[in-house]
Design a protein that fits this description.
Elements lengths: L2 E5 L5 H11 L3 E6 L2 H13 L4 E5 L5 H15 L2 E6 L20 H25 L2 E8 L10 H21 L4 E8 L12 H14 L4 E3 L6
Parallel strand pairs: 1-2, 1-4, 2-3, 4-5, 5-6, 6-7
The protein binds NADP nicotinamide-adenine-dinucleotide phosphate (NAP).
């Protein structure tokens, strides 16, 4: 059994992806900051017959994130799939002219240092397995910057570039890197943007293994 590590695993997309990949036989590591919620989600999944474990880390602490992923791999089995999808903090979304260099520390830690630390931690194991998938999930500002959401717009663009470089560099090693851009909000019941539908889209990206950037919906939807 191999593991999917979901970094930023909450009750919405994180839980849906856990169920989708769990149904396919993967163990699930749920990484988030809140120990009670993470353990409770893992217990729910375990009750549904999915092997799951909550692991606590703040993605803005690269060492803690790497340690959490190491713990998850040891406890559950090698990490074949890494999904990076923590929900950004509201204070990252300030108007561009109100955004100082200091305001960009958080977004860059969150969307650049976090993914780089996570990828560096899991890559050796993926190489050993001979396969792997890295899934980055972002909002629409990754593609079209928004003047009132400067922090996420700038940091998502950097994360996007990192993922694209990884996509091109790791393809020959059997490691597929893809980005799912979700324009607008995740909407329960929506035919393209409900958590379960998005989880299925992410499963298909992992299964079909082509192309870097994918859109969950039209950008102007
Ligand atoms: N929700 C939307 O409308 C929307 C729209 C477009 C794109 N997206 C994308 O969808 C993904 C999130 O899906 P979701 O909104 O349904 O969220 P979710 O999976 O329900 O929860 C995400 C979890 O991220 C965790 N998180 C936040 N900051 C963190 C940090 N610093 N370190 C570790 N974990 C952290 C939070 O748990 P803790 O508080 O316990 O850490 C939260 O429960 C993200 O990639 C986001 O960019 C969401």
């Amino acid at each position: 059994m191999t593991t999917i590590a979901i970094i930023g695993a909450g009750p919405g997309l994180g839980a849906a992806v856990a169920r989708r990949f769990g149904r396919e036989g993967h163990a699930v590591a749920l990484v988030a900051r809140n120990p009670e919620r993470t353990v409770a989600l893992a217990a729910d999944l375990t009750g549904e017959g999915i092997t799951a474990r909550g692991v606590v880390a703040d993605v803005r602490d690269p060492e803690a994130l790497a340690a959490a992923l190491a713990e998850a791999g040891e406890a559950l089995g090698p990490i074949e799939v890494l999904q990076y999808s923590p929900v950004p903090q509201p204070e990252f979304m300030r108007p561009v002219l109100d955004t100082t260099h200091a305001d960009l520390v958080g977004p860059v830690e969150f969307s650049v240092y976090g993914p780089v630390a996570a990828v560096q931690q899991v890559l050796p194991g993926m190489r050993e397995l001979g396969r792997g998938t890295i899934l980055l999930v972002n909002g629409g500002t990754a593609v079209v910057p928004h003047p009132d959401r400067a922090g996420t717009s700038i940091a998502f663009a950097a994360e996007s570039a990192y993922g694209h470089l990884l996509h091109d560099t790791l393809a020959a090693d059997g490691i597929h890197v893809a980005q799912l851009v979700i324009p607008g909000a995740i909407i329960p019941g929506h035919h393209r943007k409900a958590p379960a539908v998005l989880a299925d889209t992410l499963w298909q990206l992992h299964r079909d293994r082509h192309g870097y950037r994918h859109f969950a919906d039209d950008l102007d939807a």
